[in-house]
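Researcher: Going back to the complex we discussed earlier. I've cleaned up the inputs and rechecked each line, so this should be the final set. Can you rerun the prediction on the complete assembly and write out the structure?
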Amino acid sequence: MVEATIPALRRYARALTRDSDIADDLVQDTLVRALRSEHLFHGGEVRSWLYTILTNLNRNRLRSLARRPMLSPLEDNDAPDLAGPEAGARDIERALATLVEDQRNALLLVVLEGLSYREVAEVQGVPIGTVMSRLARARAQVKSFLDGERPALRRVK
Amino acid sequence: MIDRDSPVTEDELHAYVDGQLPADRQEAVAAWLVAHPEQALLVAAWRKQADAIRARYDAVVNEPVPNRLKLDRVMQQGRAGVSGAWKAMAAAAALVAFLAGGTAGWVAHGATTGTPSSFDTITADALEAYRLYVVEVRHPVEVPGNERPHMTQWLTKRLGYQQHIPDLESLGLKLVGGRLLPGPTGAAAAFYMYEGASGERFTIYSAPATSAETALRYKGGDRFAAFYWVDDKHAYVVSGPADRDRLRQVTRAAWEQIDRGAGRRS
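Model: Rerun complete. Updated structure for the full complex:
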C-alpha cells in the first residue's frame, strides 16, 4: 500500500519543491520515516499519513532553508521559458510560488492529489473550516497573480 | 463575494469545483450558477487553475520510480549505512507484515533480533505499573492532570530528558495525571495515566533505554496489552486494555505528539 502511493508522493513533492532531485529526497525521507512507523497504521489511513510526513518534512526543509543564506537564485533550474503551453505551466508554477506554505499545501492536496477536505484537515492538523479558508485564499491569490500576469505578457507581445 | 443570505455558500462553490459536493447539491449549485454569471466566472477561473496545476504536474506519476525510492532499496540503503537503523526498519517492516496478516516478500528474515531483553524488561515494568495503578481508584497518580506544565517540568527534571505529555482528548481520553516510578536500570521512569468516558484506562510509561532506537513492538495478554518503542534512547510503552485496534489508535496519537515534540527540540 505504501508502494502504490509513491508515484503520487513524487508528484506532490515535485509541485512543492519545483525540483525533481529535492522532491525525490523528500519522498525518500518520507519512506524511511514511514517504514519506521507504518506499523501503527493500516488501511486507508496510510495514504494521508504519508502525505502528513511529507508535508511536515517539507516544512522543516523550508525552515532550515530560511535560516541559511540564499545560495542559489530563486528561479528554479527547470526547463527554460518557452512559448505556448509551456508558458502556461510556468505561470501556474510562479503563481503557486507566491502562496503562503499552508495555503499552497492545501491547494495541492485537494487539486493535484485529490484528497478530501477531511483528509487535508487530518494532514494539516486543523479543522475543516481552516482548510476551506486556506483553499479560498490560495485560489484568490493564484487568480490575482494570473490576472496580473496575463496583461503584462500581452503587452510584451 | 457571496451574499450572507445566498442559498449557495462559497465553501459549496469550492466543493463544486473539487467534486466534493453531495450529489443532491451538485445540480442545485449548477442551476444557481446559471443565474449568477459573476460567480460562474469565478468557478471557471478556479477550474482553470486546477487544470493548469494538473497539466503541469500530473505527468510525474507516469515517470518510472527511481530505484532509490523502491522500498527494498530504501531498506538496503539503511543497511549500508547504520546497520541498527536498518534492523529497526526491517523489524518495522516485519511488524507491518505481521499486523497486515500477510507476507511481504521484501522483508528480510532474521533481521528482527533487536534487543529483546530490554524490550521484555521495560514492557514488563510498564505493564506491572499499569496493572498496579489502573485499578487504583483513590490515588492513581501523584500529580493531577490539570497540572500539566508543573508535571512536565518536574518529570523532565527527574528523568533528565524533555517530557512531552500527549493530549489524547481527541480520542476521548482525559489525562488523569502522572507519577514517578523506579525505572528498569535504576533510573527514574515517568508514568502518565489517561481515562476514557467508560472508565477504561491507558498509560504511557517512559524511561531511559539502552538501545538507541527500535521499531514498534506489540505485547498482548489476555486482558492487557502494550506497544513499545525506543526513540533517541528513550523508551515508551503505551499500555491499555487488550483491544489492539484501540490501543494502536492511542499509540499512534501518542507517538505523533512525542515525535513532534522531539522534533521541535532539534
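Model: Worth noting: Helices of chain B lie at 10-17, 23-34, 37-57, 71-80, 83-100, 116-134, 148-159, 244-265.
Researcher: Good, that matches what I expected from the previous run.
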